[in-house]
Amino acid sequence: MIIPPLILVLATACGDKVGDDTGGGMGNVRTESLGSYTTDTGGLTGAIPLEVPDGTSSVAVHCGEYGYDTLGTAWRIVDPSGGDFYTNEYVEGHTDTPMRVGNHDDTLPILMPVSPDHDIRAGSWSVDVWIATGGRPTTVDCGAVYRVESPGSTATVDLNAVFVGLDSLGLDAASAPDDEDFQAALRYAEGLWSAAGVTIGEVRYFDFPGDVSRYQVIDVSDTDTSELGELFKTEVDGPARALTVFFVEEIASSSGATILGIAAGPPGVPTVAGTSKSGMAVTTVDLRADSREVGLILAHEGAHFMGLFHTTEKNASAFDPLTDTPECPASSDTDGNGLLDREECAGKGAENVMFWAPSVEASTTLTDDQGWVLRRNPVAR
Amino acid sequence: MRRLPMLLGLALSISLPAVAGPLRDSVLAALDGVEDPPSRESLAPLGEGVAAELLEIARNPSVPPSRRGRAVTALGWFPDDAVHDALVAWLSSDDRLLARKAAGALATGWGDRAVEDLRTALQSDDLQLRVAVVKALASIDSDAARAVLEARLATETDPTVKDGIRTALGR
User: Fold this and answer.
1) A339 domain residue, yes or no
2) Total domains present in chain A
3) Is there a single domain that holds both residue A136 and residue A53?
4) Is B38 on the interface with A (CB under 8 A)?
5) Is A129 a residue whose pLDDT tops 90?
6) Would you call A9 helix, strand, or coil by DSSP?
7) Which CATH number fits the domain that encloses residue A236?
8) Average pLDDT across chain A, whole number
9) Position A262 pLDDT exceeds 90
């Protein structure tokens, strides 16, 4: 059947959201609803179909909300050939691929690709999501984000900077543009990203519109990330195609120790506001002492949001899915404390911004593959 | 009787010159993870002298505040008299971050014996310190700690702190 061109145009306009690329618009990034799915007694949604358009370089899928006390992950991702792009390790016939999907509470974020060794292509895909429902049927709403353009060798990322009760630093949306330390932190982060061909574009400044006393210090634990998730759901009047960064006084762990930064995911849900995976948080207690510390965390967490993982985890339990990033093996733990520190991993990844414990003195590099992933993310343009 | 050690601890916490020991680099490295804060399991294997290194790091103004705060938290895992005195001094200091961390460390290291110091800190004007103290008392979860929380609930005006107290009391 031949469909008149006018009807095709109308169908496209109604089915997807497409904006222009000027003044913070979505440009060649499309979002669509994939519908609602209810899990079976095994916690599986069944295949969620999505049509990846021609020219797509990056796809993000998100499904939620299923609650902060429940974890979800991808069970299987099938590509247009009908083969498995990804399977969970518990799936029979599991094959390890350069694709990574973690276990996430409340909203599951999936980003493809996260490695140049496992690129995506146009056509009919499906994603099967597993949620630890304990047999209880759970309905989730799913959506997709497609970046329908080829990324270049350079990219620009806009920021929505949200200040959450930083009066002890004398920092807010009004003062931040002229705040030497804050601007130095931004420049430091941009300097680190420049190794990957990424620059910071427009920065918009917002004061947190919610309950400052509740979110000024964020409490997180392995069993409760609700405060962080609710923070990340906060919407500000900035462009969707941007990184939304919540600058808080501190993030505190269950032991009371400070966490320097946390990004949703990784990865986060790009260009879609209002989910518990739509932002990242940066602790600012170091800003006046050494703005580079905050800049480093901004670069590190921003990279997590856009699809990078730690090159080596703290105990070598995992490495990232990229082939050109150095790995620091467990045998490097010479002091026997179960942590691979930067001295033990010198020359084995401690120099990378995405080392689990980067330092302003040593961690300044990003590899070609890391840049490839960052420049592809839908928030980048 | 406890006043002299307390004053001594306060003086030491303010004026002790930084003298790094042989474990300093390893201890400092254990405080460096972005999303992974230090744990007792990562510090204890470094050997004798960890507490002294943590005290030095926490007192050293050239160390970033986040690492100093992490060192204060970690001191709760290595309780001794010198650590106790330093923590009590930080709890009543003007350093918002170190005061919060000291509250948690006192609860970790001294449990019920820290309740009286924490009760005093609950009078602070700093609402985030009060929030941290409430969490510290909640972690102790003794009759004395619960009594302090009940008493504060009756007079606390900030909704965030009140919510924290109610959560701590299981309401």
Assistant:
1) no
2) 2
3) yes
4) yes
5) yes
6) helix
7) 3.40.390.10
8) 93
9) yes
Interface confidence, given as ipTM, is: 0.91
- Using the beta-carbon criterion (under 8 Å), do A357 and B29 form an inter-chain contact? yes
- For residue A345, is it within any domain? no
**Shortest Cα distance, chain B CAs vs residue A39, angstroms:** 32
Contacts of B94 in chain A (CB under 8 A): none
Boundary (domain end) residue, out of A103, A124, A147 = A147
Whether A193 and A101 share a structural domain = no
- CB neighbours of A165 closer than 8 A, spacing ≥ 6? A208, A212, A213, A215, A216, A248, A249
Nearest C-alpha in B relative to A218: B128
Residue-wise pLDDT tens digits, A205-256: 999 999 999 999 999 988 899 999 999 999 999 999 999 999 999 999 999 9
Neighboring chain B residues of A219 at a CB cutoff of 8 Å: 135
Do A165 and A259 lie in a common domain? yes
For residue B29, give its domain range.
3-168
CATH no. for residue A85?
A: 2.60.120.380
pLDDT at A93: 87
CATH code for position B86: 1.25.10
The nearest CA of chain A is from the CA of B159 a distance in Å of 9
- pLDDT, tens digit, 9 for 90 and up, residues A340-378: 999 999 999 999 999 999 999 899 999 999 999 999 999
**Residue whose structure tokens are 């001294």:** B110
Which DSSP state fits B107? H
CA-based torsion, A303, A304, A307, A312: positive or negative? positive
Q: Give the residue from A130, A147, A164 where a domain finishes.
A: A147
Please tell me the distance in Å from B88's CA to the nearest CA on chain A: 16
CB contact under 8 A, A356 and B36: yes
At B157 the three-state DSSP class reads coil
Nearest residue to A374 via CA among A57, A99, A145: A57
- Residue in B46, B66, B158 closest to A213 by CB: B158
B76-87: pLDDT as tens digits: 999 999 999 999
Q: How far is A321 from chain B (nearest CA, A)?
A: 19
Encode pLDDT of B34-87 as tens digits.
999 999 999 999 999 999 999 999 999 999 999 999 999 999 999 999 999 999
Helix, strand, or coil here: B23?
Answer: coil
**Model pLDDT for residues A301-314, shown as the tens digit of each residue:** 999 999 999 999 99
Pairwise pLDDT comparison (A333 vs B16), residue with the higher score: A333
> Which residues are CB-neighbours of A174 under 8 A, at least 6 positions away?
A205
Residues A63 and A134 in one domain: yes
A-facing residues of B in 3-22 (CB < 8 A) are none
Domain that includes residue A250, residue range: 155-311+371-376
CB within 8 Å: B69 and A301: no
**B 102-121 residues with CB < 8 A to A:** 103-105, 108
Q: Which two tokens stand for residue B10?
A: 């306060």
Look at residue A39 and tell me if it is in a domain: yes
Q: Read off the pLDDT of residues A10-45 as tens digits, 9 standing for 90 and up.
A: 333 333 443 334 445 899 999 999 999 999 999 999
Which residues in chain B touch residue A356, judged by CB atoms under 8 angstroms apart?
A: 33-36
Q: Residue A302 falls within a domain, yes or no?
A: yes
CA dihedral sign, ordered A50, A56, A57, A60: negative
Nearest Cα to Cα of residue A377 among A55, A33, A191, A114:
A114
Do A200 and A126 share a domain, yes or no? no
Coil, strand or helix at A352: strand
Chain B contact for A17 (CB, 8 A cutoff): no
